[in-house]
Amino acid sequence: MTIFKNWSGSMAFTPGEIVTPEGEEQVCDLVKKACKEGKKVRVVGAGHSSSPLVRTDDYLLSLEHFSGVEDPDLENHTATVVAGMTVKEAGKDLFRYGLAMHNTGDVDVQTLAGAIGTGTHGTGVELANLSTMLWGVKMVTGTGDIVELNKKNNEEDMKALQVSMGSCGIFLKMQLQLEPAYHLYRKEYCVSLKDCLDHFEDLKKNRNFDFYWYPRTDLCKIRIMNTQEEEMPRIPYGTLDLEKEGPGHEILPRSRHLKFDEMEYVLPKERAIDCFLEVRKEVKENFRREVAWRILVRTIKEDNAYLSPMSGRESVTISLHHNAGLSFWQYFKAIEPVFLKYGGRPHWGKKFTLKAQQLKDMYPNWAKFQQVRKKYDPENTFLTPYMHNLFISGQ
């Protein structure tokens, strides 16, 4: 039996079978087979998620043979991306056609479908998470049928599908609303925490801005990106640490050789800095000796997807990191109540402890999402025990 391990190594399990179909009909056949057998199907991407979204004792489905960019439209800035591609692969292929995603996260090794399905994001007050690119989808439902829908003919269902963690269907192809390819200038500075927070509102005005706080030094690294060189601000209170430029898909992410586990919560922007300061206090008092990894703070534009953590509110995220292979739950569980105190919602693809009873109160459109999910997966073919706990248990 093959053991599956996620990127960080913190999750390992043995699925009943790993399936790698080469065509759409094979995906349909697998889902129909699972329905007859009373088994579950979960789609695995690149395995970057820290949460056990793909854990299953039944069928683990890989779309590694599904790749390519179709129907690039330079006038309307749209294209169709086949669902097995990583963020990095999609960025490179779209660039060949003069197109680009509006943003990416700090990491680009995830499958784009997985990044969309978990509400993965980059940073920037005018830049929403990656799921907002999803204009239309071709997918296999929980009964093994293929359906196609988009925001023009079914806007409400698309709000559910945008951030659905594979619980409504298996995406085969995704129609994306994109941008013309763009060039980015990037600078990183080492600054004091005081200077970072004193200038936070001005720093947010850049196209992309975030900061790392280092627990053991109490210093920060601020990262700034803009499309024009003359838009890059002067930071007289900081020491320049890095400077580079290039196509957006190359400049937005950074290579990550060290692996980590992560918890991230999404806060309403007006409460985020107070939350960060309380997190900092907790870390300095209780975890400074054990935690060497920095804490990342990012800004994200609101959206209207039913289960997007940024739904209905301008947001700031705070991410905890801990070295892969080390015990992380004591640290994460100590900080999680602070996030909740300030109205935080968890990132679906990272560590958290909440279940359906707590989660449903965070999302005004929770019931609407469940109606759409049940419509496309009436037998809960895509709901493993973990997914059942997220969406059903406690309701």
General description of the model:
By secondary structure, the protein is α+β, with helices and mostly antiparallel strands. It has 3 domains: 4-62, Uridine Diphospho-n-acetylenolpyruvylglucosamine Reductase, domain 2; 69-181, Uridine Diphospho-n-acetylenolpyruvylglucosamine Reductase, domain 3 (2-Layer Sandwich); 186-346, Alpha-Beta Plaits, CATH 3.30.70. It has 12 helices and 20 strands. It has helices at 24-37, 87-96, 112-117, 155-162, 193-198, 200-203, 248-251, 269-286, 329-341, 356-359, 366-376, 385-391, and strands spanning 4-5, 12-13, 17-19, 41-44, 59-62, 69-73, 78-82, 99-100, 134-140, 146-150, 170-177, 179-180, 183-192, 208-214, 219-226, 239-247, 260-268, 295-300, 315-323, 345-346. The chain has an 8-stranded antiparallel beta sheet. The protein has a 5-stranded antiparallel beta sheet with strand order 6-7-11-9-10. A hairpin with a 6-residue loop joins strand 1 and strand 2. Helix 4 (155-162) crosses helix 11 (366-376) and helix 8 (269-286) packs antiparallel against helix 9 (329-341). The radius of gyration is 21 Å and the shape is globular. It comes from Salinimicrobium oceani. This is FAD-binding protein. Keywords: FAD, Flavoprotein, Oxidoreductase. Residues 11-181 form the FAD-binding PCMH-type domain. InterPro entries: ALO_C (IPR007173), FAD-bd_PCMH (IPR016166), FAD-bd_PCMH-like_sf (IPR036318), FAD-bd_PCMH_sub1 (IPR016167), FAD-bd_PCMH_sub2 (IPR016169), FAD_lactone_oxidase-like (IPR010031), Oxid_FAD_bind_N (IPR006094), Vanillyl_alc_oxidase_C-sub2 (IPR016171).
